[in-house]
What we know:
Distance between the termini: 33 Å
Strand order of the largest sheet: 2-1-6-5-7
Number of helices: 8
Helix content: 25-40%
Structural class: alpha/beta
Strand content: 15-25%
Largest sheet: 5 strands, parallel
Shape: elongated
Amino acid sequence: MRIDIITVLPELMKSPFEASILKRAQEKGLVEVHFHNLRDYSTNKYKQVDDYQFGGGAGMVLMIEPIDKCISKLKAERDYDEVIYMTPDGETLNQKIANQLSLKGNIIILCGHYKGVDQRVRDTMITREISIGDYVLSGGELGAAVLCDSVIRLLPGVLNDETSALTDTFQDNLLAPPVYTRPRDYKGHTVPEILLSGDFPKIEQWREDRAMERTEQLRPDLLK
């Protein structure tokens, strides 16, 4: 998989990809992540990429021309399955979307900033708009990092135990069951005996029951 991220703040984007699972995925050659500074595609000497909105109003808007130049250059070099715009009013990221995107080959992610982008970008260049929640951030960079993490960890070979991702919260529209590790008894708080029994069919049933209980209590909307 190749992910190209277009941003006005590439220095903000890089650090999440330089540690842990995202770093290992790149070192294994399972994913390529490239950052593109939108200001490199500016049309004037001041590297301006934003302007006031027509009709008046507070806040600046990312201009169409630098974005078009960057996306056009990338598309001239390879085919892309999706051109994603990170925006608060996009479809809310969930595990189903992450699963879908993990099957793609090449993805462009455009990070919004200020009051967003010229609507013509959304109308003519974007194939999918994604939000990480009903709140507003200073830009789409952190949202893009969240999206990439949720997708890259699903790629075969990224996790040491590939079955781990299959048992994550939301994979089956249920919250994950409780998990325990050593010590067996900590200040009187003990591990459920069933988990120590070695009876794996009963353990799996216990986990399914606890997952259902947690979902009914905390996220009943997932069961609808």
